[in-house]
Write a structure and sequence with these properties.
About 45% of the residues lie in helices and about 15% in strands. The protein is α/β, with parallel strands linked by helices. The strands form three sheets. The protein has an eight-stranded mixed beta sheet with strand order 7-14-13-9-10-11-12-8. The protein has an eight-stranded parallel beta sheet with strand order 21-20-19-18-17-16-15-22. It catalyses: L-histidyl-[protein] + phosphoenolpyruvate = N(pros)-phospho-L-histidyl-[protein] + pyruvate.
Length: about 750
């Protein structure tokens, strides 16, 4: 295609000149539509912009009545322009008026034009508007013309996304590109965070989209693709990558896409229309993303993420940018936005600057969520496509109570949330006033309320809350944030600090629970089909006894002259406990032999989180000094529902009769043997669930610091005999009862319990 001004490459160069001119946004758009019309030998060129109210407004035109600009508005389900916006696909017609979607707008004067070509104006797969050319003659637009118009639309997308057009819009009719968004997801970690977006995996901002030298750009693109292919092949050949498994399947998918002729061909064609290599990658990926966002097949939607990642790898290759966020330049009041991330990745940030976390995936009991709660970071998950809807630096509010996220919030919403933060602070003051009040239920039953911890930043919470002690100290967090394996002396220093902070209050140290989604950055990852069920926790420790011995030795030395409570995670058989306990005895012998000080007393227990132990309780309680229930893992294994998988993590309610009966079985058997049991999973950190646990017999709970006040306030008002009398008959229900949550909520409301 060659028009009056010499084709698409000349058009792009002229557009670049117009973009640089110091003119108003309206003048710039007016010049652009004239240029496009002349270049494509079109009698009409029009730009429609998607508004915040979901309608499309005519912002500029060459050929239609100029008086229709800013007056012609149509719904997104109306006309050919609406169809292009809704479907995010080009429409090319030689006789537009014969099409069933054609909508006649008399004020535009377009009834004399027959041929129609409309393309969506896209950015990150999201529709920002529609670019249209029309002619009186019945003509068919060529593939080259469609491609050229799509390339031009990419330039318009940057104008719209920049916010330049907002000044000319009426209130309530601003361009949708920068519109406020109110999204609803899954509340993961309580709290309210006000701040600005930091993308965990920042998009590469393509600053130069118009090429100066097409052969050079093609050469750059081909070179980057070759390098990308070679890097994927190298990863697949790495001995550390399993022969089978999810990680390998992802890499195989990457290799397939990287060798896909269609994908490479579309990028080369985009370069030939006048784009730089980076601009071509971005344009093709935006078009692909727009199509895939409108698909309902979950498999195809998952492939969209693969293509996003592959395109970002290619852009990094072209721009020389490295992967990952710039952690050293994290702004104050940062809200981290990510598809998903590991607990170690979150801990890698400066936690004093993070106010919130927004995830496309995420689950209420995932280890990432647990770490976010421990750090007091409000978090919301299940926010589909949120990464594609925000830009770095956008204002955002994260409501970890309701599961709502406000992106680019209006002033009144921001003001309302500022007031909500003040109200929450007052409520926290009321909880703080309960600090020295003993945790005794209304009927006089004492409850031991402990804290879950894992970092030095958690230690001040012991004094702030007046907690009975630390019911679970997750020792692996120290290993996850370190750049190298912590030496014995480093471990000893941490454990001693924890004991010093606790004073005469008990601390339960859990030995390393690594593996699964808790990967140490300096250890080679072992790829497994089902990592949660694989080589992790005590299994890894028993197979690598040197690792377990060094940690136990550090714990024993740190507790010199004091009591040490030690617990082993992921125990599946009593024999595993026996082997681990033997290592403790060996280390005690070693310390005695070498004249080291010893703890005053050593108590050793297990985490009850594997269902197999439910059928070994007599053997177990005849051996251990105490036990802790890890409700997160126990519930996920009971229901075979991966707590890190957003599709199934919340399908089964831990307040179902089956789960509560299993928990009651444990506490009843422990009572027979006179062994103390603490429930330290996230289940105890929610007031309604804590009510159920107390009702079935648990008198020791360990909760996250943020949950301590709400749970304690509920327990102080609880009539425990009444709660037990209400709950226990419900456990015998036979039939289709998915959860006791509604009944428990009704009981709490009637009793006036603060939830």
């Amino acid at each position: 295609m060659r028009g009056a001004l010499g084709g698409p490459r000349v058009l792009l160069r002229r557009l670049r000149e117009v973009m640089a001119e110091p003119v108003s946004a309206q003048d710039r758009l007016d010049k652009i539509v004239v240029l496009i019309a002349a270049n494509m030998v079109a009698e009409v060129c029009s730009v429609y912009v998607l508004r915040v109210d979901g309608t499309l407004e005519l912002y500029a035109t060459e050929g239609l009545n100029r008086t229709a600009v800013h007056l012609t508005v149509m719904r997104i389900d109306e006309g050919l322009v609406g169809t292009v916006a809704r479907e995010a696909e080009p429409i090319s017609l030689s006789n537009a008026q014969a099409h069933p979607a054609f909508s006649y707008r008399p004020e535009t004067g377009e009834e004399i034009y027959h041929s129609f070509l409309g393309v969506p104006i896209l950015r990150a797969g999201n529709t920002l508007g529609v670019l249209v050319v029309q002619n009186r003659a019945h003509r068919s637009y060529t593939e080259e013309e469609i491609e050229a118009l799509q390339t031009t639309a990419m330039v318009l997308a940057e104008i719209i996304a920049s916010g330049e057009l907002t000044a000319m819009a009426l209130p309530g009719a601003e361009p949708a590109a920068r519109r406020p968004l109110h999204l609803k997801g899954l509340a993961l970690s309580e709290g309210i965070g006000l701040g600005h977006v930091v993308l965990h995996e920042p998009r590469i901002e393509v600053t130069k989209v118009i090429a100066d030298d097409l052969p050079a750009e093609l050469k750059r693109l081909d070179g980057a693709v070759d390098t990308l292919r070679a890097s994927i092949d190298t990863m697949l050949e790495d001995e550390g990558v399993a022969r089978v498994g999810e990680h390998r399947e992802i890499l195989e998918a990457y290799r397939m896409f990287a060798h896909d002729r269609g994908w490479i061909g579309r990028m080369r064609e985009a370069v030939m229309t006048g784009l730089t290599a980076e601009g071509a990658v971005e344009r093709v990926q935006s078009d692909t993303r727009a199509r895939m966002l409108r698909m309902t097949d979950p498999y195809l939607r998952e492939r969209m993420h693969d293509l996003d990642d592959l395109a970002n790898r290619l852009l990094r290759q072209l721009t020389g940018r490295t992967a990952g966020s710039d952690h050293d330049r994290l702004p104050d009041n940062a809200i981290i936005v990510a598809r998903n991330m590991s607990p170690a990745a979150l801990l890698d940030y400066d936690r004093t600057r993070i106010r919130g976390l927004v995830l496309e995936e995420g689950a209420a009991t995932s280890h990432l969520t647990i770490v976010a709660r421990a750090l007091g970071i409000s978090a919301v998950g299940h926010m589909e496509n949120v990464v594609g809807q925000v830009d770095a630096g956008d204002a955002v509010i994260v409501d970890g109570v309701s599961g709502e996220v406000h992106i680019r919030p209006p002033a009144d919403v921001e003001s309302a949330y500022a007031e909500k933060v003040r109200f929450r602070a007052k409520r926290l003051e009321r909880y703080a006033a309960l600090r020295d009040v003993p945790t005794v239920t209304k009927d006089g039953t004492p409850i031991e309320l402990h804290l879950n911890a894992g970092l030095l930043v958690d230690l001040p919470h012991i004094e702030e809350t007046g907690a009975t002690g630390i019911g679970l100290f997750r020792t692996e967090l120290q290993f996850m944030i370190a750049s190298a394996f912590p030496r014995t002396n480093e471990q000893l220093k941490l454990y001693r600090s924890v004991l010093d902070a606790a004073g005469d209050r008990p601390v339960v140290f859990r030995t390393l629970d690594i593996g699964g989604d808790k990967v140490l950055p300096y250890m080679r990852a072992i790829e497994e089909e089902n990592p949660a069920l694989g080589w992790r926790a005590i299994r890894l420790g028993l197979d690598r006894p040197g690792l377990l011995r060094s940690q136990i030795r550090a714990l024993l030395r740190a507790a010199t002259g004091r009591e040490l409570r030690l617990i082993f995670p992921m125990v599946s058989a009593v024999e595993e406990y026996d082997r681990a306990h033997h290592i403790v005895e060996r280390e005690l012998t070693h310390l005695r032999r070498h004249g080291h000080g010893l703890p005053e007393r050593v108590l050793v227990g297990v985490m009850l989180e594997v269902p197999a132990l439910l059928f070994q309780l007599d053997l177990l309680f005849s051996r251990v000094d105490f036990a802790s229930v890890g409700s997160n893992d126990l519930v996920q294994f009971l229901y075979a529902a991966d707590r890190g998988n957003s599709r199934v993590a919340d399908r089964f309610d831990p307040l179902a009769p089956a789960a509560l009966r299993a928990l009651k079985m444990i506490i009843d058997k422990a009572a027979e043997y006179g062994k103390p049991v603490t429930l330290c999973g996230e289940l105890a950190s929610r007031p309604l669930e804590a009510l159920a646990l107390a009702a079935i017999g648990y008198r020791r709970l360990s909760v996250s610091p943020a949950s301590y006040g709400p749970v304690k306030a509920m327990l102080l008002e609880l009539d425990l005999p009444a709660a037990s009398a209400f709950v226990e008959p419900l456990l015998g229900i036979r039939g289709e009862v998915h959860s006791l949550r509604p009944q428990l909520a009704a009981f709490a409301a009637k009793a006036g319990l603060p939830l």
